[in-house]
């Protein structure tokens, strides 16, 4: 845990209705219309709703059928994950040009640590403005940014004036901003904890201030101590950039169970490509490969393997991931709801040279470099490895 | 089948073959040791199908072995070892009857379920007449000074063994994991002028060294197309050769390098250890690399730095000739070589920070190590 730093400055950057905004960018005829991104099949859910659709009560994670009842005129489009991933990478490239301390939270959200960069970059609110301008200029998308003394407050702040917001929360604003919020907004308060808090008569963050730390600990354990600090606007968690992360992964949930192993395998290859590309961009190598597979009634398994040495070569990671997948599928494939790949045992720094350079590996490295360049210039959708890549 | 043998001999024979008996067999029969009794004595056999070890206790002489009835038995290796460990030194009688192995001694008796000897895999023991002969100490040295550099991972095929090259009276041993390479040269007796090029599983060689005894003067190595047998007076280690092509090692051993250093072996070892204290509990290349800065007329400076831990700088007296250069190495790779080098002074030479470095000690030991990239 980082020490408490005076004058700490953390930014939370959150893209506005990201998937829906990308769709409107690519298809101008959708602009201004209530738009739902997600599958329109039975059991489909809303992945993103445009602000126009939100006015009708639509929101993400809602069953599509419910959203359509709220807003029968909404346009429904099927998600194009690769395109969102590509736009996300452009946004992250912009963020990383401001600070090396960028912690991705998801495809469309990140923290930036700006503490101590004032001399170099100027005051944090100006940096926030510059980031918003560059994101809009280079991608055509809008982001909401919160500036605050810590991660928790920065995330609260970015949400206050969405979309296209820029909110600065200073130490002195904490009570005004925080106290009226529902307890659900505290980090770590999920539906179960929220229900318990409500039962105890605590509905707003301000209500929790009545309890001392010992009481909160008594009722919620370690999390209680954490709530004690959060409801006072205190949060000392550091911003952890991806380079220091212990693992790097990519996964997706299908709208429906996928019954064809080849289809799941093809999607897995895309995840491996994404992870490998990110490893290379950050100058990292992975020695561990693990797969996450969810099937049936939300049964989730992970299967892992270790490579003899760290690599960022797509083909090497894919070979490992494919063999894990094939072994699982061979033992008894079941329709898959979620598939994901995580690279672990991350290595950085010096790279051990090889006495007998593997000509195949060198060829693969050149292939990766070429693909990375094409994708950086024209987007990740433009070129992919085919299903016969192994 | 029935025999009586002093406990000490049984313990020794069992310890020798247990080295190759798998701990988790696919079938129970593989976790067993096969004991054959004949008027000549006992032969113990253990195998994991890749490496097998046969160990004999002769009936002649002072062994105290008495074979009452010839025959074959199987006994679960670990259980039998455990029983013998609990016994004082006394005669132990063993017999086998229809799936039960009986162990009897003045201190107690055990009846253990055992497999059928007919299910035990057949191991061909080659005729001992042919092959080359290597002195015990020479062979130990060959194995000790190469085996550590062999690849441990099974997936690096052809590298998880020691390459043995015999031509005339010259015997070479080479092991590499693709990042460093260890090479030893020795002489052997080769009465038939045989020529061999064989990759022997590292484990076969280390097991052989383990069972060598002072009265084993020479080890005979006999080769077939696909197997090797190494015999001493009492033991024979048999192994399937590793298939695949060993990389062209001669090409990567640098000769006549532009940069040459002469360093005290002990001082270099101590210096690297001092720098490497930062690496305790670190894994991987990044957590284990040191920089060696060579400069004419100056000490060799070893530096290490680990994020969030700190930095180390150690100076080591060194005679260096050539244009100064700073090179990164995995400290462990260099330390492992120094641990088996012998002479007081080692020479270290290289051409650039990207090319392999060669460490030699003037005693037929050559070690090549690839640098790690440094900026």
Separation, N- and C-terminal Cα atoms of chain B: 70 Å
Name the CATH superfamily classification of the largest domain in chain A.
Answer: DNA polymerase, Y-family, little finger domain
Count up the helices of chain A: 15
Domain count of chain B: the total is 3
* Lateral arrangement of strands in the main beta sheet of chain A: 5-6-1-7-8
Q: What is the CATH homologous superfamily assignment of the largest domain in chain B?
A: DNA Polymerase III, subunit A, domain 2
Low-confidence stretches of chain A: none
Considering DSSP H and I runs of 4 or more, what fraction of the residues of chain B is helical?
Answer: 10-25%
By DSSP (H or I, 4+ residues per run), the number of helices of chain B equals 7
Biggest sheet statistics of chain B = 9 strands, antiparallel
Shape of chain B: elongated
**Oligomeric status:** heterodimer
CATH topology assignment of the largest domain in chain A: Dna Ligase, domain 1
User: From the 3D coordinates, which CATH architecture of the largest domain in chain B would you assign?
Assistant: Roll
Give the class-level CATH name of the largest domain in chain A.
Alpha Beta
Structural class of chain A: alpha+beta
- Structural class of the helices, strands and pairings of chain B? alpha+beta
CATH class of the largest domain in chain B: Alpha Beta
Task: Label this structure with key terms.
heterodimer; A: 390 residues; Alpha-Beta Plaits; MutS, DNA mismatch repair protein, domain I; DNA polymerase, domain 1; 4 domains; four-stranded antiparallel sheet; 15 helices; 12 strands; B: 375 residues; DNA Polymerase III, Chain A, domain 2; 3 domains; nine-stranded antiparallel sheet; 7 helices
């Amino acid at each position: 845990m980082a020490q408490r730093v005076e004058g700490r400055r953390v930014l939370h950057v959150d893209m506005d209705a990201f998937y829906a905004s990308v769709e409107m960018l690519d298809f101008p005829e959708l602009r201004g219309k209530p738009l739902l991104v997600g599958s329109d099949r039975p059991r489909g859910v809303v992945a993103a709703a445009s602000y126009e659709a939100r006015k009708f009560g639509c929101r993400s994670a809602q069953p599509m059928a419910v959203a359509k009842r709220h807003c029968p005129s909404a346009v429904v489009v099927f998600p194009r994950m690769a395109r969102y991933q590509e736009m996300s990478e452009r946004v992250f490239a912009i963020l990383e040009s401001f600070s090396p301390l960028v912690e991705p939270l998801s495809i469309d959200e990140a923290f930036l640590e700006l503490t101590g960069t004032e001399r170099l970059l100027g005051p944090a609110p100006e940096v926030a403005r510059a980031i918003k301008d560059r994101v809009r200029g280079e991608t055509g998308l809008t982001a909401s940014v919160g500036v605050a003394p810590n991660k928790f407050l920065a995330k609260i702040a970015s949400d206050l004036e969405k979309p296209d917001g820029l909110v600065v929360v200073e130490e002195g604003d904490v009570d005004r901003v925080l106290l009226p919020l529902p307890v659900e907004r505290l980090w770590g308060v999920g539906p179960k904890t929220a229900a318990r808090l409500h039962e105890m008569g605590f509905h707003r963050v301000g209500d929790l201030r009545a309890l001392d730390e010992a009481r909160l600990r008594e009722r919620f354990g370690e999390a209680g101590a954490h709530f004690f600090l959060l409801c006072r606007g205190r949060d000392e968690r550091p911003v952890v950039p991806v380079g220091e992360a212990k693992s790097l992964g990519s996964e997706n949930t299908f709208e429906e169970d996928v019954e064809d192993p080849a289809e799941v395998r093809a999607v897995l290859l895309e995840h491996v490509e994404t992870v490998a590309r990110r490893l290379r961009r950050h100058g990292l190598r992975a020695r561990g490969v693990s797969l996450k597979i969810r099937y049936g009634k939300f049964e989730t398994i992970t299967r892992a393997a270790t490579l003899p040495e760290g690599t960022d070569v797509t083909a090497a990671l894919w070979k490992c991931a494919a063999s894990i997948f094939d072994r699982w599928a061979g033992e008894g494939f079941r329709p898959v709801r979620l598939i994901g790949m995580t690279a672990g045992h991350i290595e950085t720094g010096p790279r051990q040279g090889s006495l007998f350079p593997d000509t195949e590996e060198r060829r693969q490295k050149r292939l990766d470099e070429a693909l990375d360049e094409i994708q950086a210039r024209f987007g990740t959708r433009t070129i992919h490895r085919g299903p016969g890549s192994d | 089948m029935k025999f009586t043998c002093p406990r000490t001999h049984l313990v020794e024979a069992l310890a020798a073959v247990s080295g190759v008996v798998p701990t988790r067999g696919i079938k129970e029969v593989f976790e067993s040791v096969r004991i054959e009794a004949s008027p000549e004595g006992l032969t113990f056999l253990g195998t994991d199908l890749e490496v097998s070890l046969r160990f004999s206790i002769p009936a002649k002489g002072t062994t105290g072995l008495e074979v009452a009835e010839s025959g074959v038995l199987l006994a679960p290796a670990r259980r039998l070892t455990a029983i013998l460990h609990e016994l004082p030194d006394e005669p132990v009688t063993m017999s086998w009857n229809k799936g039960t192995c009986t162990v009897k001694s003045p201190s107690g008796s055990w009846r253990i379920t055992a497999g059928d000897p007919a299910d035990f895999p057949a191991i061909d023991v080659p005729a001992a007449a042919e092959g080359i002969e290597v002195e015990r100490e020479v062979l130990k040295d060959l194995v000790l000074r190469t085996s550590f550099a062999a690849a441990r991972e099974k997936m690096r095929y052809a590298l998880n063994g020691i390459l043995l090259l015999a031509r005339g009276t010259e015997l070479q041993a080479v092991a590499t994991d693709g990042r460093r390479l260890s090479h030893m040269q020795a002489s052997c007796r080769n009465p038939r002028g045989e020529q061999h090029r064989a990759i022997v599983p590292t484990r076969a060689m280390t097991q052989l060294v383990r069972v060598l005894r002072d009265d084993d003067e020479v080890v005979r190595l006999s080769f077939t197309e696909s197997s090797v047998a190494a015999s001493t007076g009492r033991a024979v280690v048999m192994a399937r050769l590793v298939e695949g092509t060993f990389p062209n090692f001669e090409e990567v051993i640098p000769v006549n390098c532009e940069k040459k250093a002469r360093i005290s072996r002990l001082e270099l070892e101590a210096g690297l250890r001092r720098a490497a204290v930062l690496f305790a509990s670190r894994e991987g290349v990044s957590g284990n690399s040191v920089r060696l800065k060579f400069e004419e007329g100056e000490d060799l400076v070893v530096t290490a730095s680990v994020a969030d831990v700190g930095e180390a700088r150690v100076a080591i007296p060194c005679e260096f000739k050539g244009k100064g250069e700073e090179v990164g190495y995995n400290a462990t790779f260099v330390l492992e070589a120094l641990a088996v080098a012998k002479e007081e002074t080692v020479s270290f030479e290289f051409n650039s920070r990207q090319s392999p470095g060669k460490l030699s000690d003037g005693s037929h030991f050559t070690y090549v190590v690839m640098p790690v990239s440094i900026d």
